[in-house]
Amino acid sequence: MTSTDTRGRPRRTALQRRSARLGWTFASPALLVVAAVMIFPIVFSVVMSLNKVAVSGNGFQLNGFTGSNYSVLFHAPRFWHDLEFTVLYTIFTVAIEMVLGTLVALVLERLTNARGWMMALLLMPWALITVVSAELWAYIYNGVYGVLDTVLGTVGVHNLNVLGTPLQASIAMAVADIWKTTPFVAIMVLAGLVMLPSEIVEAARVDGARAWTIFWKIRLPLLRPALAVAVLFRILQAFGLFDLPYVLTNGGPGTSTESLAVLGYKVLFNDLEFGPGAAVAAFTAVIVLVFCLLFLKVFRTQVGEQED
Amino acid sequence: MARRRTRNLGTNIAALVIAAFVALPLYWMVASSFKGQADITSSAAVPPHPTTSNYGNAFSNYGFGTYLMNSAVVAVTTTLIVLALGIFAGYALARLPMRGKTAIMTSLLMISLFPTIAVVAPLYLLLRDIGWLNSYQGLVLSYTALMLPFAIWILRNFFLTIPFAMEESARIDGAGPVRTVLSVILPQALPGVFTAGVFTFVAAWTEFIIALTLNNEDRYRTIAVGIALFGGQYTTPYGTIFAASAVAMLPIALLVLVFRRAVVSGLTAGAVKG
Description:
The complex is a heterodimer. Chain A is mainly alpha-helical. Chain A has 13 helices and 2 strands, in the order αββαααααααααααα.
């Protein structure tokens, strides 16, 4: 039986305690920077959103507790629209990206000679500056001389003016997003596919199972953990969507493609309304936090290792 | 045999379709960068009168050289600081018996996925108070904090795979803890360092919202902000935009090609475990 400390944990040796101290010395510079420049501002956003904020040329002041920032927000139809848009956009793009990404991964897996080149090509959209891809798609979608109109013209569709109508603009934005992000999903899924034990698939094949059955009944269920991580990562990234709508549509036409992050930015830095703007930002952060906590188990499995 | 051949044919056709979907927009960007004022509105697949005037224009009339320089300074500095801090933190969180490691790693993973809009307003106000708007150090500090969590995550996962015997023998040889990390453990974990480095560099090179908020003076703008603001009120100079974009793409494309394996292993750092 090992001895334990007052909280029931195994008592540590002097060497272990010294190592732990060394660990904190090594880790604290990085952790302090993250705490001061990431965690503190997130918390500060929440504090700001609950205060009357006055910003002037000399600095800013918090002038006491108020719920009015949130009541302004919750009474604004624009806020509810943007929330709905962000949620729906996230669900649709991530769903399509997952399906396409899995299909691309299955193709990549069968590809023998050219896989390296394909991977290199797939990484290009991922590494592209999002602002650049937004400009590129704006040029392709341009209502006057965009190449999309030329291409669609050959099949008899004319004057689509994609970015001019709300639904088409949302779809156009989703296409640009899917183009840039599906490769990322495909590479994550491929890594999961390669890790699957090949014996089970071989056994099923020997038993005469069809490729389709093998995929649905054996590989897909085994792939579920890898898919879960990809979905979680993508949902959280998509929910903070900013660069693409800000440059491609500027939230338009009207506010039809305005995400929560774009709304927050506009309220903060165009309208200079720091209270309500902080409320949008804090609200977004809280949704993400709640989502993270709901899926805490997935995150913890990712960390994997047990506590010493 | 025949069946296998048709299967391969199907795979190859599918691969070609995927490659075309990915490559065509990129091709369109590069091709359009060589189209002059008169051709930029044409849908010709090959520039009818290829010209490099957009490239000259981007540098001489749009100050792209400044943006390029700013992005390079900020991205390189951020990457070096993130690696310096991240290596020790990642090592500690992988190898040393600290309590609360799981909680720290879980929090870091979550923070790395947090929407940046959540930190922009406080960062802007606080950095304004200390006079760090429109500076390199304000952006580098923000990026360091933004990108450290994922870098620590990648590095820690690599350190976990190194055999513990390495430290034992280093200690017996009388090496101090810092020297053990730098000269014994680090060489073993170089792929992880490359991965973390490439990810940090790409993230810093492409980041938009913080750069847009903190550095709005022309002199301190980064590439992403510069390109986004190229457009005037009535016209968007697409030729110039894509010339600048092609130049901005070059270092990243080379980096990704050279470190392809490292990038893939970073992308899959999540999927492989668990």
